Amino acid sequence: MKVAVVGATGMVGNIMLKVLEERNFPYTELILVASERSVGKQIFYKGINYTVVGMQEAVDQTPDIAIFSAGGSTSLEWAPKFAEVGTTVIDNSSAWRMNPNNKLIVPEINANELTKEDKIIANPNCSTIQLVMALAPLHKKYTIKRLVVSTYQSITGTGVKAVQQLENEYKGVKGEMAYHYPIHKNAIPHCDVFEENGYTKEEMKLVREPQKILNDRSIAITATAVRIPVVGGHSESVNIEFENFFNEADVRKLLNETSGITVQDNLDTNTYPMPIYAEGKDAVFVGRIRRDESQPNTLNMWIVSDNLRKGAATNAVQIAEYLIENKLV
User: What amino acid positions are annotated as catalytic residues?
Assistant: First the structure.
């Protein structure tokens, strides 16, 4: 099993390597791939010094699986070239997510859609993954009618440049800016670029991607995405209107029994999800589960997850594990 990690020198790429090691992923050969400026760099991993190679060299080595975290333009150019030589690509960018010919996969929800013919598989947006993990069992039981999502997103979703900006601002040092404004002691209601409708791309991902993953375009969704000065993970305030009546105790029980979900919801002990405790973990944490008293059949929840783990690297590795376990590569 020959596996390539494309974007191995980046923030998500580093986490991917960590996740592969933690999960004892069954590769026999590992190829670390990055952009031309990183070619030739050495990465010490699991006792071995790996030399980072370029894209064409990686294609020439015909890996069985290539896990991409290298940006949309890179993926659009190179994922088809890997696919042409028989490699199955799992792509973490937004490049293929809404393409009707590519599947958008969260393994706990819809991995059973995958076949050997799927050569470019899309990994959903980080905010989408944690959202649909909590929504899927509830939609199956109660049928979601409408969803209002507000996100409070970690700077790690922007990348190393944003982390450096926050660290500089902590220290009072002037430096390169990842955002239009200071992020320290601030909240910026601007994640990704604005579209013509006044929503950002990040907000529209939260509208379109859950509908595709849950295979239900009838769910009405609206979102507001906000960047906040935290590192540990993304948080989401979610208001869900169902077609059918629900019981709060049943909702907690259902979520508790869902693989990948950890319910943290005890008001007596002030127990609820927070990014400071989600960092470095693979679970999606759900709490503040309560009925919306302003209208019927409506629920409020608070969802937190490490956006670099389940929101990116872990989900991609889980897809790869599913492909191997089911002999799809």
Answer: 126, 234
